[in-house]
Amino acid sequence: MPDPLLELRGLSKNFGALTVTSDVSLTVLPGEIHAIIGPNGAGKTTLIHQISGTLRPDRGTIRFAGQDVTALPFERRARLGLARSFQITSIVPGFTALENVALAVQARSGSSFRFLRPVANEKALNEEARAALDTVGLGRVADRGAAALSHGEKRQLELAIAIAMNPRLLLLDEPLAGAGPEETERLIGILRELRSRYGILLVEHDMQAVFALADRISVLVYGRVIVTGTVDEIRDHPEVRTAYLGEDALA
Amino acid sequence: MTAPFRKHALALATLLALAAAPFLGFGDGFALSLLARAMILGMAAVSLSLLVGGAGLVSLGHAATMGIGAYTVVAFDAAGVSEGLIVFPAAIAAAAAYALVTGAVSLRTSGVHFIMITLAFGQMAFFTTSSFSSLGGDDGYTLYARTEWLGTRILDNRLTFHFLCLGLLALVWVGGNLLLGSRFGRVLRAARENPQRALAVGFQPYPYRLVAYVMAGAVGGLAGALLANATEFVSPALLSWTRSGELLFMVILGGVGQIGGAILGALAIVLLEESLSHLMVYWRLVFGPLLVLSVLFLPDGLVGAPLRLRAAIRFASPKRRNADA
Ligand SMILES: Nc1ncnc2c1ncn2[C@@H]1O[C@H](COP(=O)(O)OP(=O)(O)O)[C@@H](O)[C@H]1O
Ligand SMILES: [Mg+2]
Asked: Taking CB atoms and an 8 Å limit, are A119 and B186 in contact across chains?
């Protein structure tokens, strides 16, 4: 077995009396899509926050690419190759789609303490940004203001930004939420292509998508991983059926 | 090429008008000193606009950097030093150092807290200058001589001084625009609109904001050194928080969307102040309502007015109504 790209050990987090993450241990291998499913309020987003560095866990460790990153802030983890998307779309509305992505390229291409040269003319940044937009199928709206994009396009833009970071691991928090059937098809196709390049930790409600994409699935209930397994194992797991999926969902 | 030109047309036209003004009947001492004041305050306002509109940092203590620049000139004057090659760099450095120290603390906060803490630092600077009894304390200090350059007294010539101020104002404006369009500026703008996004791609906004804060402080120091020369008198009033508020007023009236707006804002306020103070005693009473009106009817400020006007005309034009019918 290859060394895991991401390894969580005994992660715990409380908000006051509420336990949102309870002794979570899991791994993501290189090239693997590890999906996390669970009912609303199970603590999936909070877990992503802790992995990306926007929240500190109370206990436990996070190892990324062989390094303990538990104490590293958000932006430092990003520079190490940990890219995340947000459940609620987070883009720079006043930028064009291209500039949103170029910002991510810029972050890993030399110093940004450059004060005079117009960054909009930096070919190297723009070309890489355009390539990332093409990957997610947004090439034709590159020069449109990000605020003017449709909801689905914004989700895709966020994915393009993450790709442009040239990351090693993608943390995706419900990337399909709110997308129409066609956009969902397209996004699933994109994620399938990306899996060879990155490890992906995928939080997603769309069961069809999860079963189509995931190599392994962990089920989170009340902050605790109740089971981790392959698609078939999860589909047939009795506790999962009762706790989360509901009998009819699998009928 | 035409789009950026149109965007900056109004600010550019204002600078050209300022260049022509001395030859169009505004060449007397009174008019020139008024215009010099407007240009110098415009410089400080442009640097504040860089913070407010560019980086999203609403400072209510920017006048302190101007005051420190001015007091540096005064302190050297008291020590018998008036060489510009010493005085001006010192004024800029002193203001930048102040910005570095206060910015390092202030920038750890945001929103209303940032406004309050910049105000507090500004007040500290204000009371510090008031206590310099050797520099006149509350009463202020009258400059013995204007700053010299390599021993020559070129600043004494009002026309020279006019074009020096204009040149520096243009430089600050062009430099500020380049800055906002650079890699550095893009990080600032991204962090203003969505700091979470900036962090997510790997940018910690703090160092970028601090550098911007120091740069704006340096420009404030330069403006202060010029102002001391323009008025040949410096008092703590220069650092009062109302002065900072006035700079902010200039930025908002001019339009936060473009740093060039601050030039228009400064000019408008200095000229308005002058004409109103002749007309009535309580002219300051008019200022408040004026700001309210400008925010209501010119949300993009003076620089945004032509576009807004054009849109209004198009909306009201019969052609459009016919097209809709
Ligand atoms: N900052 C917070 N303070 C207090 N409670 C929170 C906070 N963030 C999330 N929670 C609570 O933690 C639980 C898990 O939330 P979340 O991680 O968003 O769940 P999921 O993403 O699985 O729907 C919810 O009950 C939520 O209300
Ligand atoms: Mg969630």
From this structure: yes
